[in-house]
Amino acid sequence: MDSVMCLVWPALFAVFMQVAADSHTSPCNPGLNSVECLAAVKQVMADDNRFWFGTNYSIACPPSSVSAICNNNDKTHTSIITRMRVNDDNSTDTIKQVLNVTFDVPAGFYQACGNTYRVPAVTQTLDPTQTTNISLWSANYQPRVSWTAEANKIYTLMVWDAGAVIMHAVMYNIRGSNLDNAQTAYNYRGPKNPVDRDQPYVFLLYEQEAELIPANITNALIAFLSENRFIAPDKIVNIASLSGPVGVSVLTVKADPYSTEYMKQNRIVNNCPVKLTPMFAALPLSYNVSDVRLLSSVDVTFTSPEISFRSCCHDVTIESNSRMTNPMGNGRIWPVYTRHVPSIAFTPLSFFDTFYYMKNHYTLLLLDVTDDLAMTSDPDTLVHWQVVNIRQGDLTYGDTTLPYKAPLPLTDRTLMFLLLQQSMGVNVSDLAKFTGDSCPQHLLHRCHFNLTAFITQLGMKIEGASWFVTSPDLYSRQQAVLENLQPEASACLGVPEYSSPCQTAADTCSNGVEMTKRVSVMTLWQCGLVLAFMARV
């Protein structure tokens, strides 16, 4: 897709987990069956300050804290082993072995926060003593789990989120070490860590006294789990008369784009602005954004009806389509798709603050920041759209002081949407002073925009951002000629098959596809980097 830059998640993770899992510093490096590994895993289970819910939690999150990062469904217990139990027992004596948990997942991709992420194939055995940088998309596949089984023993396996105290799988009546013969009361669900900190997901193996009757145990567990979303494994241990745990492993993960998108789609928390903040803060805008913390997503959708036109001796038909901005991937959107006013949606970090955008007025800017990013000494920042005094997060309840002006780039340009929180109402008659005095008529009150003065003098704060790259295409070349921005010879310079006057023969791409046919943007692109959208002035 031309408007999406796909990022591999990561080829820098290609070394992937093996960097952590095979590190010579790991006590499990000799093998999961080693005495050193078992001792270290027991320590992970009993450590009172290894994870965010440990003894330092009360310091980092005093009782008055209400942020999502301080959400703790068990404030009493500070280690994995005590959070598992209905009492304060911190003993790990029942644990006799470390489970072998192996993810064997094919390559794939997913979309998150407007970007497409490609995930390499992975075959990895967990090291329970290390943070695992496995993509949570991959961890969503049920792993292979094995252990050294005792003769005639029957087992139950649970997967449990020790941070959120939520069950992720319950499988029982397992004979030997083969999950293929297990009966399932609660299907495996992969980790969905919403916060960029270590979160432990624990694989727990228990011994059964006898075979459990499926109808009885399944109904009991389903009823119990439906009423008790936050649950300690000991509750199930007591229901099913289990003993242990006799074996454990720990999958420790951080948040990644996959879990971020999951949390957003399920309206739990929107951390897309958090993920975008480091990229935005690194941009060399004329206004210093290094300390800006984004608090809102700015989701921009351009909808393009079908259009037919003639440009540079080519007849072109582009079918109706839509494009969304993708700042995470520096996505490109061609001018033919941005010719109409886009739809804008703002989403705060918290879905539970339903009155968030009613507390303040906002301003939306669409700026050409190409000169800023190039660190030009005298940047000509151009205002393509300006709406102030936005109420209720709805552009229709705002004052449009500069209507949307579709970009018609003569070279590669970067356009940025900025959502700014106002500290007061804006007098629309005062806004012209933030632009240049000598703008041409078609750019009146739009050129040489002073973003720094605009923000500081009006007492605004950047709250959200999105951006896209745009480049000349056949549509923008045609418009440049129609609006007398360029003579046709200059606008069409470098376009294959262009001549003045145009040839009378059928216009074709370099690969012979007639331009009069309905073709997709990708077909046009394949036709020759230029015919459609890749030509450079």
Describe the protein's architecture and organization.
With 537 residues, this protein is α+β, with helices and mostly antiparallel strands. Helices cover 19% and strands 26% of the residues. Strands 13, 16, 17, 18, 19, 20, 21 and 22 form an 8-stranded mixed sheet that branches. Strands 2-12-11-8-9-10 form a 6-stranded mixed sheet. The chain starts with 6 loop residues before the first strand and ends in a 9-residue tail after the last helix.
Furnish the topology, listing elements before pairings:
Blueprint: E1 7-8, H1 18-21, H2 35-46, H3 57-60, H4 80-84, E2 97-98, E3 100-105, E4 108-112, E5 115-119, E6 122-125, H5 136-139, E7 144-146, E8 154-161, E9 166-175, E10 183-186, E11 199-208, H6 214-227, H7 233-240, E12 242-253, H8 257-265, H9 272-281, E13 296-304, E14 307-311, E15 314-318, E16 321-324, E17 343-348, E18 362-368, H10 370-373, E19 382-390, E20 399-402, E21 413-421, H11 451-457, E22 461-470, H12 474-482, H13 488-491, H14 521-528
Parallel strand pairs: 1-5, 2-12, 13-22
Antiparallel strand pairs: 3-6, 3-7, 4-5, 8-9, 8-11, 9-10, 11-12, 13-16, 13-17, 14-15, 18-19, 18-21, 19-20, 21-22
